[in-house]
Every structure is written in structure tokens, then in C-alpha cells.
Fold:
Amino acid sequence: MASENGRTRKPVAITLLMAEPAAVVDPDAADAAAKLFKALSDPVRIRLLSLVRYSPGGEACFCDLAEEFAMPQPSLSHHLRVLVSAGILARERRGTWSWYTVVPEPLATLETLLRLGGPLADRPVRLTDAERDTRC
Structure:
């Protein structure tokens, strides 16, 4: 026991992991989520996802999407290709046009991580002053 100013202090056990082990994101899930977040890290892609998701019938043609953006066709194609490569959108060729639909599973993965009670949305456990003083 340590002595401070003539007083004896008792050692205090501390917990290094403040979450249940099941709530911690494993490396494979973290890698998959990072790829999804990266694909959605551009405002154009967020808007594309929204437009496709709320299109009549849940699908949108490239020609309809192109009308919504003031950008060259290759740039828009690049953004759509990133979303398809990440598995967020599915693409189907019909004649000369591509049609896009939302793939629900990747969005469900992100929802699980971000929802209240999920591993990325919980608030950290607040330490008392006494607990804070005993840490590193």
C-alpha cells in the first residue's frame, strides 16, 4: 500500500476494457465497415444512394441519375462504380443502359454498428474522479 501525507491508500482495481467483449468490433468486421464508410465518404455518393433508394420501384437508370448531377459522364460512372464495388449498389445492364438498385445487407451492417447500443454508438463509461486518479 502506498503512503501519501501520512495516509495509507488502498490499491484500486481498474478495468481496462469498458465494453463487453462481444460489443467490440472484430478486425474483419472493422475492415468491412471501413470499406463501406470509405465508399460513402463522398457527398455525390451519398446523394446517389439516396436517389436510387427512393426511385420508383427501388431502381434507377443511369440516364435518370445523370440528369441530377452537373458533372461529366465518366465522373458519375466512377462514383457509381465505387458504390457497386463496395457492394452498396447492384448494377444490371438492360440494353445500352445500366440500372442500379440498393443492396440492403451493407446498410444493415452499418446500421448495426451505429444504432443506439451498438459498438460505435455507445457512450463511454464515465469514470469517477477517484477512478480517473488511479489510472496511468
